[in-house]
Amino acid sequence: MPEFCDVALSVPLDMAFTYRIANGTQPVVGGRVLVPFRQRRMPGIVVDLHDRVPTIQAKNIISTLDASPVLDHQLLRLGRWIADYYLAPLGEVFRSMLPLAAEFKRSINYRITDEGRLALHQAGLAGSSARSRRTPEGQLAEFRVLDYLAEREMTALSTLGTAARVSKALLDSMVRKKWITREDASAAHEAANVAKFAVLKDAEGKLNSNQTMIVDTLAAAGGKLGLEMLRALPVPRATLRTLAKRGLVEIIEEPAEFSVSSLKARPSPFDFTFSPAQQDALSRIQNQVAARKFEGILLHGVTGSGKTAIYLAAMKLVLDAGRSAILLVPEIGLTPAVAADLHQVFGDEVAILHSALSGQERAEQWHRIKRGEKRAVVGTRSAVFAPVSDTALIIVDEEQDSSYKQEETPRYHARDVAVMRAKMANAVVVLGSATPSLESYFNAKKNKYALLELPDRVEQRPLPEVEIIDMRQAFQETGHEQVISRKLAQEIRERLEQKEQVMVLLNRRGYSPVVLCRACGKTLECKNCAVALSHHKRTHRMECHYCGYLAPVPKACIYCGSEYVYFLGTGSEKLEELLHGMFPRARIGRLDRDTVRGREDFERALNALNNGELDLLVGTQMIAKGHDVHGVTLVGVVGADAALGFPDFRAAERTFQLLTQVAGRAGRGQKPGKVVLQTYFPDHYAVRYAAQHDFAGFYDKELRFRSWMHYPPYSAIANVLVRSGKLEEVLRWSGILGQWFEKPRHEGVRVLGPAAAPILRLKEDYRYHFVLKSASREKLNALLRAMLTHATQQKIPRTQVIVDVDAVWMM
Ligand SMILES: [Zn+2]
Ligand SMILES: [Zn+2]
Question: Of 25, 133, 613, 667, which has fewest CB within 10 angstroms of its CB?
């Protein structure tokens, strides 16, 4: 047995730590050990066993947690690649890869109480006086905690401590005030796979309006509903407890195998015959899988061309051959209905990894996959690390989706990790999309990936006709700003009369995005971020869409006291109201992050549309995501081009993708569809090409721009963000790094900056950034690594210099 082992710990340091192997402990490479680290005990992954005596005295490991590796040879290699490529500490990469924290660490979690919500609300009402600069730091910290928890379900101590920058002592004192509750994750209801249901016992007696809503909802659902469903109702949680106390409702626990939709049964995903193009794509994938050689395939299929059926069929073939497959889907795509489809096709062999799983459930699924009980894995971003063996196929659906990029350390892109994993496993990776990313399309053009095209919709349904409405002209004609143009209003009216369905996209939630004072010209900004607060009418508050900060709706300007405060612009909430006014008899639903808390809400809204319970659905980009609703014959696009004004080189690409996706919702059934696209940029190529369904035209033009500007895919890019709560610190640190970058040490790498980030302040941090571009990824990464070393020497904390390789979000 070697004398020492090197252990990767989840700390922000780019190194492994050497420990002495104590008698009786037998660590394995890829297995976990418990070690002492700075007065704490920490689990880590063994990355090497050796006899090299370290220069400083090595401590003994405390115990070995695994007799066999939790990360096999391939996943270890993948982890090292990620650490190297994204410049992330190896221990933090492994932590992201292994959802096992819940196993050996009893996590402490917090939840906001109704009393806490009340305190938050009152502080909000008191406005600037209660939360001014004179407020003691302790109180501010308490509000940070309440703000954070108000937006979330249960939150772990570790997350909360970092996010709200508070100590456990402060949290304990808040528990004593009854503003928050503390729960241990190992408590029975978390560990066991049970769900809570409300059962209606009695509907007699006097009820207030909130109570009536719950009782009616339960009655309509046949007397029993999951608490999750009831929580989506706009009533305080205390209402249900009151009903339970009065004996009208009983709360019961039942085993819950998450998965199958409680909603309507769906037809089989294989309920139609494959088109020749689908058949070709499937055989191509099948042949490559059989060859056991790496291949990347870009499956470019127009909206409605039946890509999902190909994915499922290909995975089924892989499973039938005794091998394993992984399907990655964007966050919002994993609804209970999709889960039901998957169970129908794969039975018990499928593991579904979604964000609503608890730590325990996640760990349990992980072990089942590791033991080989589940060989089909479907999940969001981190499912790319599922410990399947004999990986034959990895599919990334909607590969351009930005939810595949993790926006915290390690900042990996799951699509690119999927490609690398497939390469290491001699497997096939399929990237599917109606609107592939520039990077993937470029790779296909360069023959790095095979390109499979599905140019037609299933059953030869036509793509919708797109009409562009120039809103500048509409403004000149009417003399005032319009949200819904005359043309769009007329088209909507016609569809409603014919009992057809309509979707209207406005990619901005809330009622009004800006509150402006006409007297002093200031807009109301978030206290933590340099962004405008949005007005939310139903909840009657101002909200920051970046950090979740809430404030009361101002009656007078908070800066100058003037009463001339104006609410400007339109969000989805106001659009819904406008449409109600224009079409009072239409049944209108709204889909955005204010109406959708979880996957069930999302599915419920879509089902309502599918079942004809809605005539019109308004929403943000959520309505554009690949869902198959057959009755929609008209899609209206209202202000989806705002992003074209953002200082982000991907703005045109994102706009083109969004427009194409939302247009794809029209005419998926028997009747052809139409899109009315309102824009202030009618001549912009992203708008033009989207209207013509001309993917190739857009890509050619955009690629030319990228090439001129040395942007990806023509160069590798990294965003280096320097952040601190103190502006002086940010300026000093970015000055130090700026000077270092000035020295001629980076041939072949362009460095732009330091400059204020487009959003100067975010979540209480001031932010400056550098943008690095290089045709050579090796040179880029070497320079970044040297810069990090310099930053450490200059005592700039590693956590305050964020290196984002292949950054997706440049703001
Ligand atoms: Zn003012
Ligand atoms: Zn904010």
Answer: 133
